[in-house]
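User: I'll paste a sequence; please echo it back and then give the predicted structure.

Assistant: Echoing your sequence first, then the prediction.
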Amino acid sequence: MTVGQEFHAWAVTLSEEIRNLEYTAKLLLEVNIGATAIGTGLNAADGYQELAVAALADVTGLPCVPAEDLIEATSDCGAYVMTHGALKRLAVKLSKICNDLRILSSGPRAGLNELNLPELQAGSSIMPAKVNPVVPEVVNQVCFKVLGNDNTVSFAAEGGQLQLNVMEPVIAQSMFESLEILTNACVNLRDKCIEGITVNKEVCESHVFNSIGIVTYLNPIIGHHEGDIVGKICAETGKNVREVVLERGLLTEAELDDIFSVENLMKPQYKAKRFK
């Protein structure tokens, strides 16, 4: 897998969350104006609901619509649960991406050291040259807060009684907070981290070609049994797969160059004649 494929996968997963948020946001356009106390519309003037919803749509510029059932809309907070659930999903995926960034940039000697994150501040007052992945760490913590807010929204939605839910203030506060901190986290992650990332090409190549796991790619060519032998020899001797395959006369230099080219390594399976 290339670094480009990794970043593309991240882009796709975040695109999914954008579409999910766009869908759940539409649920909030249904309003219960005119329901009065419990949804029966007691003491509301005739035509009030239609006029109020139209005025709200005009003020906000959003296509607000009256709820189908005002009693249900007054007591139920499902739209908030689903919408904040979408924020939680985004937070989970965003935090996972930040975990990946932290481990891929770890090092330079005792970690993976495949990516370089922008250096924003000194990492330690006692350890010279230490650099911390501060932006991914901050985003992780923001995401943890959003996960906590999601529990708050869920408990508050459940906390209603009969036709009323007096817990909606904490639902609103949690949703607004999650929206604000997640927005800021995404912007800062992009501006202060993602856009400044560079790749340690030599390190990435070394990890690939010194990995015993790459013998798996040779299974269709040399067979599983021979691949198992090659892997064990590599583990015992410290040699890489290429060296052992050449020593055993399984493939030539030219064949290995072709098989292990970047273009072929990116394919699901190398199309080659099986080893006889």
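The two ends are 28 Å apart (CA to CA). The mean pLDDT is 91.
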